[in-house]
Give the backbone structure.
Amino acid sequence: MSVSERSVGVCIVISVAAFVVSGSLLLRSVGPDLFHSSPITLNSVGGKPVRVQFVGESLCPDCAAYTTKVLEPIFSSGLKDLIELDYVGWGNAKNNSGEVECQHGPRECDLNIALNCAQQLSKSQEDFFDFLYCLEREAFSSTGTEVLQTCSNSGRLSEKALRECSTGKLGAVTAPLSGSCSHARNCHHHAVPSLAVRSL
């Protein structure tokens, strides 16, 4: 299988993952002998995962919906082994002469930095996704402090390390890096959420 065929195959898997997962649950509820198929594995799509670059931002209803309704079924199933998630916490922010302005205000900027720090600090993409999923669910109704407290536990991260990163030099670096990715490293987008599938 060629690289392009594998990328297309995994892209299709990602696009219909929520449908596949919900459909399989429905079939199981009807009866175990009604339908049988081989599981989707790395071997079945060419042996290598693909990078899924997700340009998003906190406090964005569409990004939250994509995370909780599409990506979550992937990460709660074996399909997560098919991808390497690269989250870019920048979205529609703008860098005006070194001053970052976020679409949803300063709180979004703070949470975007926390997301970028969490990705740097996480020991696995599963840990990072648990943090992302938690933040997308909690950010609309909780304060920034409450979100970091709750979601650092969900993502098996050190809250202290996350805060130190978010307010320190590493956090200060993640925002410009994410911005340069969004605008220079083949991350061009017109709206968020924006996804790109690339071979590793």
Notes: The longest strand covers residues 50-56.
